[in-house]
Amino acid sequence: MPDLYPFARRILFSFNAETAHHLTLSGMKAARSIGVLSGLTGGGESPAQPVEVMGLRFPNRVGLAAGLDKKGEAVGAFGELGFGHVEIGTVTPRPQPGNEKPRLFRLKEHEAIINRMGFNNPGVEGLLENVSHSRKGFSGVLGINVGKNFDTPNEDFLSDYLDCFEAVYGAADYVTANLSSPNTKGLRDLQSADTCRDLIRKMQEKRDELRPKYDGKTVPIVIKIAPDLSDDAIKGLAEVFSETQVDGVITTNTTIERAAVAGHPLENEAGGLSGAPLTEHSTEVLALLRSEMDQQIPVIGSGGVMTAADAKAKFDAGAALVQVYTGLVYRGPELVREIAELPE
Question: What percent of the chain has pLDDT over 70?
Answer without folding.
Answer: 98
